[in-house]
Amino acid sequence: MLNCKADPTLKDYFRDKVHFADFLNGIYFSGQQVLSPEHLSVVDTDMSTVVEGKKVTVSFNRNRDVIMKDNQNGIYVLNAIENQKAIDYTMPVRVFVYDALMYNQQLKQLKKKKGKKKLKLEPVMTSVIYYGERSWSGPRCLSDMMKIPKEYKGMINDWDARIIDIKDIDVDLFQDEDNRSLIQGIQMFYRWNGKEEIKLEVKKEVAILIASIVNSKKFLKIIKEQEGEKVVMCTSLDLFAKRNRKAGFNEGKSVGKKEGRNEGKKTMLIELLKTKIGYLSKETIQLIRNCNRKELEQLTKQFVMINNQEDILKILKNCLN
Questions:
Q1: 0.85 cut: is pTM over it?
Q2: What is the mean pLDDT of the chain?
């Protein structure tokens, strides 16, 4: 089936203890082997719990993506991974609630066993793995969402969402081949300008995961068509580009002559901008694709003035005034 969705595919990927341990070791411990697959155990991701007050009792139904319990010489830490495609401006609050529910769940279980004395909670640490195309521009901790008077600086409890942008990760910090291939493949796809010659051989299942993350059914189909247990990403990207160009040409033929010329201009402009700037996001490409005649003319006339994606947005915005 070609309709592979990123979220369930990533959940399955990080349920592998080797992937999980190596990923966190690379992110937090500079590749040192602090977490060991042998000392990890999978934890139920259902965080449904009941919070009891004197007058009101509230129930919460939540599920986390992946949770592993790490045994560090008899001391346990609960490590959770949340996979995130879109920029969420409420992420620190979400993580705060998730972690609080896990602590509340522990508390209820401990009270049943030990009563209210000598309660020892297991630490919870959440990592948000962000794999979207744009750089993360949302808040990273609770204090980023607040205006705090200078008199209160350092006194308000904060909560770090620990957002890891996969595009900014140093691949040399990871030892597991699958993790290295996954990170390199995503970074290569997002930064690829259609002309760079990059060769990366990855396992087919990792290539399928990359295709689901970048949300390209065409790319996914090309990967699945290739024979063998490994896929050469450079070959896949070349085929992907050729099919896109062919699809654009056929699309131009199917519309009227005038529309066909406009579509051809847009395609050419996009390719020229990619060569000049080095990278165009999917959102920017779509904006150019949706341009009317006036907007297209302005982009073409002011081409020499365009040095980044922000310049493109300014030109299109000025067309509305």
A1: no
A2: 82
